């Protein structure tokens, strides 16, 4: 298949490397130096002993006739990508954490699919990626159809890079949203690895309150979701969450697409979420990532 990947960050490079072994992968990046090195040297992933060769293009030049597009930019960069006249022939799989993209996808004329990435990936350089946690990509139809999703997943699935079909995009993303709304901001603010959400009694107590607020808003069972949060905090215990990593590297976080989305949907005050969103923005401000509005 011809696979387009928009965004050569951690997830884009990881997907490009795994899929590039058997598919014709085209990376779309916004930095000329990155485009050149990808074309010249391919992608180096620590899971393989050799580079995986791909083609690369400079945004906004999109290659034609892709069977599928994997969109792997951060939530806050989606609006710009979606403002392009995106080719209509092809399926679009969105790999973002958070849920604020769904409203934007609803109004598109494209066949869209949503995914939850359970892998851990770290961009090491323009063309090097570390696969820090082996997982799966769960994908569900959004404006696209379930049969198309099944066909797509079957084509993309590899034993060491599994794709799993889920029927309900909103349900699937909501459950991941709760995990990210609890683990990401707390680990970022307290500069702790994910395990702290389970092991530190004070962080755990804050985590439970975040989980409760999120579940009330999303109509999910609190105890079930809390058990999932604790299990993921344990499974990924040694990881730095993406939000902590973003702050550490002076990048903007996805707090608005995660906790901000929950606040937007809430029918009541959510004091812990309100605090947490402002606290993360305060950290972004200190890092010079956002300026006062
Ligand atoms: N990393 C992980 O382990 C996981 C990530 N996710 C989710 O996946 C999504 C992507 O995350 P991740 O890969 O880590 O993020 P990164 O910041 O590493 O990568 C995003 C990439 O998108 C690029 N980009 C932004 N705008 C454009 C554009 N207009 N054209 C081309 N490229 C563009 C950025 O370019 P530039 O480098 O020039 O800024 C950057 O390389 C996020 O929503 C994240 O929450 C989910 C689970 C795990
Ligand atoms: C599940 C978790 C918390 C793993 O680190 C994650 O998705 C993230 O860091 O963004």
Automatic annotation (TrEMBL):
Residues 3-142 form the Ketopantoate reductase N-terminal domain. PANTHER family: 2-DEHYDROPANTOATE 2-REDUCTASE (PTHR43765:SF2), 2-DEHYDROPANTOATE 2-REDUCTASE-RELATED (PTHR43765). Belongs to the ketopantoate reductase family. Keywords: NADP, Oxidoreductase, Pantothenate biosynthesis. InterPro entries: 6-PGluconate_DH-like_C_sf, 6PGD_dom2, ApbA, Ketopantoate_reductase, KPA_reductase, KPR_N, NAD(P)-bd_dom_sf. It catalyses: (R)-pantoate + NADP(+) = 2-dehydropantoate + NADPH + H(+). Residues 173-284 form the Ketopantoate reductase C-terminal domain. Pathway: Cofactor biosynthesis; (R)-pantothenate biosynthesis; (R)-pantoate from 3-methyl-2-oxobutanoate: step 2/2. Catalyzes the NADPH-dependent reduction of ketopantoate into pantoic acid. It comes from the Bacteria. It holds the Pfam family ApbA. This is 2-dehydropantoate 2-reductase. The keyword Oxidoreductase applies. Its EC number is 1.1.1.169. It comes from Halobacillus kuroshimensis.
């Amino acid at each position: 298949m011809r696979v387009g990947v928009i965004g050569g960050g951690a997830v884009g490079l990881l997907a490009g490397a795994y899929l590039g072994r058997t598919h014709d992968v085209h990376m779309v990046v916004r930095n000329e130096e990155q485009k050149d090195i990808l074309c010249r040297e391919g992608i180096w992933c620590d899971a393989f002993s050799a580079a995986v060769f791909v083609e690369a293009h400079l945004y906004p030049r999109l290659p034609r006739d892709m069977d599928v597009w994997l969109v792997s930019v951060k939530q806050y960069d989606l609006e710009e990508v979606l403002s392009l006249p995106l080719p209509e022939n092809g399926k679009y799989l969105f790999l973002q954490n958070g849920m604020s993209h769904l409203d934007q996808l609803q109004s598109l004329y494209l066949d869209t699919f949503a995914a939850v990435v359970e892998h851990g990936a770290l961009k090491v350089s323009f063309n090097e990626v570390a696969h820090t946690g082996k997982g799966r990509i769960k994908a569900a139809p959004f404006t696209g159809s379930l049969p198309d999703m099944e066909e797509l997943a079957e084509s993309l699935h590899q034993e060491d890079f599994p794709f799993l079909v889920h029927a309900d995009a909103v349900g699937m993303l909501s459950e991941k949203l709760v995990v990210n709304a609890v683990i990401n901001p707390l680990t970022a603010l307290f500069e702790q690895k994910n395990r702290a959400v389970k092991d530190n009694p004070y962080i755990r107590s804050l985590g439970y309150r975040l989980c409760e607020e999120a579940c009330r808003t999303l109509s999910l069972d609190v105890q079930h979701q809390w058990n999932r949060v604790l299990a993921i905090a344990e499974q990924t215990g040694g990881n730095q969450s993406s939000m902590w990593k973003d702050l550490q590297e002076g990048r903007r976080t996805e707090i608005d697409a995660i906790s901000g989305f929950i606040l937007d949907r809430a029918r009541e005050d959510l004091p812990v979420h309100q605090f947490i969103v402002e606290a993360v923005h305060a950290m972004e401000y200190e890092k010079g990532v956002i300026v006062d509005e």
